[in-house]
Amino acid sequence: MAIPTHIGPLATLVADLTQLPPATGLARRIAFNNDPFGVTSADGVQGTDLREFLGLKKREIIEYVFDQVAAGDDQIRVDPVKKQEFIGWVSAYLVWDFTSTEETNYTEGHTPPSGGKASYFDPACRIRRAYVAGTTPQPNGKISVNLQVYAEGLLEDPATARCGVKIFGTDPVNPVHGKNYHADPNSTFRGGRITVEPFDIDRGVSHRVIVELQLPGGVVYRIDQGDNHFSV
Q1: Closest by alpha carbon to 129, among 228, 222, 212?
Q2: Fewer Cβ atoms within 10 Å of its own Cβ: the N or the C terminal residue of the chain?
């Protein structure tokens, strides 16, 4: 599909990642997997546009782009350039899909010690595993935990720690631990990892992990699905 220039940065990003010929689109998806912040920034995607993209669902992305283009005075009908560009973009995107052989071209990044396969060809931002890498008993009876959070969809500005990790125990409102982190070196979009500094928890209590991505433009995207529970 041609790269659109009049219907918003989200459409530009989608067209960039699904370009023809297939080898060109694949090269862009490989680049995105290795450096998602760099690719999305180059296409001008931030804020709510980026949050919508991270949902990774065609229908929702198309509806969002349509709403953006048709906002105000219904420009998609009165502006022939925008109308034709949207029609061409959505027609190409509707029939596009991952190729059956492209999976081996991607760098996995960090793989959980067991389980938690990447969700392609139906990708979703999710926690692949909350892995307890070590524990240390504390004098107060609590357990100090060394936790590694393996996730699909980590996207952050490498200059700023923007992956907010929150860990909840029996209290669903107040986390037992909450801090912003960088993704670990060599993380990719499909295979990211966050190494959490040691924190204390009660033994035998199930804990839930969420990751809040602090996106450019002051928008938060929450990853709160997948294998995101652990206990010791």
Answers
A1: 228
A2: C
